[in-house]
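Because discrete structure vocabularies remain unfamiliar, we turn briefly to a single example record, giving the amino acid sequence and backbone structure tokens:
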Amino acid sequence: MNKLIILITISVVFLILLIILHIHYRKVIKKKNVDVFHYIKEQNRLSNELSRSKIEKEMLEKILNDKIVIKLEINE
């Protein structure tokens, strides 16, 4: 009888340990997924910002080139 109680107690403790490990594992995986999501979101934001900057740069270059051409035409 004593051996059975000890065996049941060990089994219950082991089961509780497995449940705790499983819960911890799920939390770690969830945090990792959230971190990956934030990383991807930040990369998308940076990509969009870079695209806007390129467009602005091209427009400014065009405007400057137009002004230079106009100024050269005036000086001639």
Notes: The chain has one helix and no strands.
